[in-house]
C-alpha cells in the first residue's frame, strides 16, 4: 500500500499514516488517530508503524481519544484506545512491582513519568505527584499512603500489563511499604545518584529481600551537577550486596532512561504464578471508607478468579457479601467483569462495618472456600502513644467514628477509650512515630472536621510490681504508686545515622545527650560514615529528628529498630495547680532530667494561666516531694480606696476581712486552665522531654 493503511471496521472508517499523520474527512491530525462513529470499534495498538488488532470488534465500552502507548523503540505513539488498559493479557505478561527508596530520592516523580509514558495519564491531566492525592502529601512533599496503578506497555509487539504500587519513603510509614511488597514480585530500588545510599534505602531493601522480590537498582537524578553514578553503584554493591553492573541510570524529572526501566521490568521481574483454576484467594492490602459505597477494598488475587456479583467470604471476619463492583486502578477506578490470579484491583460490596474487611484478610468464594487463608501481615506494633481529646465534649462520638474509619485506611493506628478529669472523654492512640502521629491528627481535623487536643507523646513502659506482676503502661496516670512497684523498664532502639564525615562530632554529641550508648562507627566511603547508638525510645519522641537535621545542616539521615526493654531510673512527674494534680500534664521522665523538665513546665504555666482573686501555687512533684515551684500572685482589690484618714483600726479591720475571704476562696476555689495553656505546655513537653 502506498501512503496509508486503510482499515475498514463494522461501523467506522479509520486511516493511519505510516509517517504518524492521519486523514479523516479532509482534516489532518499529526500524531493521532481518529474514528468515525466510535461505538463498537475495537482498539488497536501501533508499534513501529504496524497495526495489530488486540481484541474483538464488539468492544463494550465507548472509545476514548488520544490515549498514548509506549512503544518498544522508546517513542510515544498516540492512538484511540479508551479501554486499552482493560484488555486481558496472559498471566505470563503481567508484572507486579513497587518503587522503594529513601524519602526525596524521586519515587513519585518516577511514578509520574511511568504513568505519562505508558499513556495511563494524558499530558493534559498530568500534574506533579499524581499518585499523591492527599492535600497533606502535596503540602509536605512526601508520600503517606501507598497507591496502585495499572499500566499498559508494548515490548517487541507484545502487550504487557504492569501493576505499579507507589510506596512511602519515611520510616514512620514502613508498614505501608511492607504491605505493598506482599502484593508484588519485584521492586525498583531508586537511589539518588548525588546522595547515595541513605538509611531508609537499607530498611526498604531488607524488607524486599525478606519477601524474595527481584530488585532492579535505578540511579536517579543523573542530570544533577553533583551526581556520581559510579560512586553510588559501588556503595550499593558494598553495603547492600546488589550487582549494579547493569543498574539503570535515569532522570525521572527529565524523562531520561524511562523506557529502559520499563523494558527491565518486563525482562527481569517474574510473572505471577498461574493458579487460575484454584479456589479464590485474594489478599487485602489496603482499604478506605466511602460514605456512599461503604468500605472499598484494594486486593491482589493470589489464586483463582473473582467475578462481578460473586458471593465472597472474608476468612478472618467470617462475613459474606456480594461483589457489587470490581475493577482495576488505572490509576482511577475502572470497572471490569472479572479479575484473575496475578491481577490487582478494587472491590465494592456495600460493606458498612469497618471491622468486616481488615487489611491482611483473605477473600475467597462463599460456595468454594479455600482450605487455608493467606499469611497476611505481621501486625504493626505502636511505638509512640498520646491522648486525643475533642475540644467539644459533644464531638466524642464523631471522634470515635472518625478513628474507626481512619484505622481502616491506616491499619498501623491503634486506639482505646480514655477518660480524664481535666480533658473529659477521649482516646489513647498508638502510632509508629511522631510524623505518623502528626499526620493522623491533621487528617482527623481536615477530613472529619474535628477540633482536637493532643497530650504529650509517651512510650510503653514495663512496670515490675512488688507482687511479681508485670504490667505495661503507656499512660502516666496509670503508673502504680512508688510503694507498689519494684522497677520500671523502658523500650530501647538501635539507631543508625548516615552522615558526611564533617558532622560526625555534632551527631555523636547528640547521641550522648539523649542517654545513648555508642556501639560502632563505619566509614561507608571516604566522606560518609554510619554511626550506631542504642538509646531510649522516649528520647526520640521529642525533637531528636529535628536536631539531627539541624546539626548536620540537613545532610544526615537515620533509621531505627526496636531492640528490647532495659531497666532505667524513671520517675513520674506530676504537675499540681492550687494543690490539685492535673493528669494530662503528668509525664514519666528520667530521674536526671526531672528537675529541668519540672522547672520549665512550672514557669510556662505561670505565664499562661490567668491570675485569680487568690494566690495560686504551681508545683512540679515527684510523689510527695516538690522539686520546682512557681506562684501566681493574686489580683488585689483596693478595699481602702474609700478610707480617707480616720482611725487606723478601720483600715486594719477591712484588710483582715479581705485576707479571710481570700483564704476561704483559696480553700474552695478552683483554677480553670485554659485550652491555650494546655496546648502550649504540651508543645513544651514535646520539646523538653
* Strand order in the largest sheet: 19-18-24-15-16-23-20-21
Task: Please mark out the parts with pLDDT under 50 across 5 or more consecutive residues, or reply none.
Answer: 1-83, 665-669
CATH architecture classification name of the largest domain: 3-Layer(aba) Sandwich
| CATH class category name of the largest domain | Alpha Beta
Number of strands: 39
**Gyration radius, in Å:** 32 Å
- The span between the termini is 80 Å
What about the largest sheet? 8 strands, antiparallel
Percentage of residues in strands? 25-35%
What class, by secondary structure content?
alpha+beta
Per DSSP, the total helix count is 13
Roughly what percent helix? 10-25%
Shape: globular
Q: State the fourth-level CATH superfamily of the largest domain.
A: P-loop containing nucleotide triphosphate hydrolases
Protein name: Translation factor GUF1 homolog, chloroplastic
Binding site for GTP: 101-108, 166-170, 220-223
Keywords: Chloroplast, GTP-binding, Hydrolase, Nucleotide-binding, Plastid, Protein biosynthesis
Function: Promotes chloroplast protein synthesis. May act as a fidelity factor of the translation reaction, by catalyzing a one-codon backward translocation of tRNAs on improperly translocated ribosomes.
Amino acid at each position: 500500500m502506498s501512503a496509508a493503511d486503510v482499515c475498514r471496521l463494522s461501523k467506522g472508517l479509520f486511516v493511519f499514516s505510516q509517517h504518524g499523520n492521519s486523514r479523516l474527512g479532509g482534516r489532518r491530525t499529526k500524531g493521532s488517530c481518529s474514528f468515525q462513529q466510535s461505538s463498537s470499534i475495537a482498539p488497536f495498538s501501533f508499534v513501529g508503524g504496524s497495526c495489530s488488532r488486540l481484541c474483538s470488534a464488539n468492544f463494550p465500552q465507548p472509545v476514548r481519544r488520544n490515549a498514548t502507548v509506549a512503544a518498544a523503540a522508546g517513542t510515544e505513539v498516540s492512538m484511540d484506545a479508551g479501554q486499552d488498559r482493560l484488555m486481558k493479557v496472559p498471566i505470563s505478561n503481567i508484572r507486579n512491582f513497587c518503587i522503594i527508596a529513601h524519602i526525596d530520592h524521586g519515587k513519585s516523580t518516577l511514578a509520574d513519568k511511568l504513568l505519562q509514558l505508558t499513556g495511563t495519564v494524558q499530558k493534559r491531566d498530568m500534574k506533579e505527584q499524581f499518585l499523591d492525592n492527599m492535600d497533606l502529601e502535596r503540602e509536605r512533599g512526601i508520600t503517606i499512603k501507598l497507591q496502585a496503578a495499572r499500566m499498559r506497555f508494548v515490548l517487541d509487539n507484545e502487550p504487557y500489563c504492569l501493576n505499579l504500587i507507589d510506596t512511602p519513603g519515611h520510616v514512620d510509614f514502613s508498614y505501608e511499604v511492607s504491605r505493598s511488597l506482599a502484593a508484588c514480585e519485584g521492586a525498583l530500588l531508586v537511589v539518588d545518584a548525588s546522595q547515595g545510599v541513605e538509611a531508609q534505602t537499607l530498611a526498604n531493601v531488607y524488607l524486599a529481600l525478606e519477601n524474595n522480590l527481584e530488585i532492579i537498582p535505578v540511579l536517579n537524578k543523573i542530570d544533577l551537577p553533583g551526581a556520581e553514578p559510579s560512586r553510588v553503584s559501588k556503595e550499593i554493591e558494598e553495603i547492600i550486596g546488589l550487582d549494579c553492573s547493569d543498574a539503570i541510570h535515569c532522570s525521572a524529572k527529565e524523562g531520561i532512561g524511562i523506557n529502559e526501566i520499563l523494558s527491565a521490568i518486563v525482562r527481569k521481574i517474574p510473572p505471577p504464578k498461574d493458579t487460575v483454576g484454584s479456589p479464590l484467594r485474594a489478599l487485602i492490602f489496603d482499604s478506605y471508607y466511602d460514605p456512599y459505597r461503604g468500605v472499598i477494598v484494594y486486593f491482589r488475587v493470589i489464586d483463582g478468579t473473582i467475578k462481578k456479583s460473586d458471593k465472597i467470604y472474608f476468612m478472618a471476619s467470617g462475613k459474606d457479601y456480594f461483589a457489587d463492583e470490581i475493577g482495576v486502578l488505572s490509576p482511577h477506578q475502572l470497572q471490569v467483569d472479572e479479575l484473575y490470579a496475578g491481577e490487582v484491583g478494587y472491590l465494592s460490596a456495600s460493606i458498612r462495618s469497618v471491622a468486616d474487611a481488615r487489611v491482611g484478610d483473605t477473600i475467597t468464594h462463599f460456595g468454594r472456600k479455600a482450605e487455608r487463608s493467606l499469611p497476611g501481615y505481621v501486625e504493626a506494633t505502636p511505638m509512640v502513644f498520646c491522648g486525643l481529646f475533642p475540644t467539644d465534649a459533644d464531638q466524642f462520638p464523631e471522634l470515635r467514628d472518625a478513628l474507626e474509619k481512619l484505622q481502616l485506611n491506616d491499619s498501623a493506628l491503634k486506639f482505646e477509650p480514655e477518660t480524664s478529669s481535666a480533658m473529659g472523654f477521649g482516646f489513647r492512640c498508638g502510632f509508629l512515630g511522631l510524623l505518623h502521629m502528626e499526620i493522623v491528627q491533621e487528617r482527623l481535623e481536615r477530613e472529619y472536621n474535628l477540633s482536637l487536643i493532643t497530650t504529650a507523646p509517651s512510650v510503653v513502659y514495663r512496670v515490675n510490681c512488688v507482687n511479681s506482676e508485670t504490667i505495661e503502661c503507656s499512660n502516666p496516670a496509670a503508673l502504680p504508686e512508688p510503694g507498689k512497684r519494684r522497677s520500671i523498664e523502658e523500650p530501647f532502639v538501635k539507631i543508625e545515622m548516615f552522615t558526611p564525615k564533617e558532622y560526625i562530632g555534632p551527631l555523636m554529641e547528640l547521641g550522648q545527650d539523649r542517654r545513648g550508648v555508642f556501639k560502632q562507627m563505619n566509614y561507608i566511603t571516604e566522606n560518609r560514615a554510619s554511626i550506631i547508638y542504642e538509646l531510649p525510645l522516649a528520647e526520640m519522641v521529642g525533637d531528636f529528628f529535628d536536631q539531627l537535621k539541624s546539626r548536620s545542616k540537613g545532610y544526615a539521615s537515620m533509621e531505627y529498630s526496636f531492640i528490647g526493654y532495659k531497666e532505667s531510673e524513671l520517675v513520674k512527674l506530676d504537675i499540681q495547680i492550687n494543690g490539685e494534680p492535673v493528669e494530662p500534664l503528668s509525664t514519666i521522665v528520667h530521674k536526671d532530667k526531672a528537675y529541668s523538665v519540672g522547672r520549665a513546665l512550672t514557669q510556662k504555666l505561670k505565664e499562661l494561666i490567668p491570675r485569680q482573686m487568690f494566690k495560686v501555687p504551681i508545683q512540679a512533684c515527684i510523689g510527695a516531694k516538690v522539686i520546682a515551684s512557681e506562684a501566681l500572685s493574686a489580683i488585689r482589690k483596693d478595699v481602702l480606696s474609700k478610707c480617707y484618714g480616720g482611725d487606723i483600726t478601720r483600715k486594719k479591720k477591712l484588710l483582715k476581712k479581705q485576707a479571710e475571704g481570700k483564704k476561704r476562696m483559696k480553700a474552695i476555689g478552683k483554677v480553670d486552665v485554659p485550652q491555650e495553656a494546655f496546648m502550649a505546655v504540651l508543645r513544651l513537653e514535646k520539646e523538653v522531654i
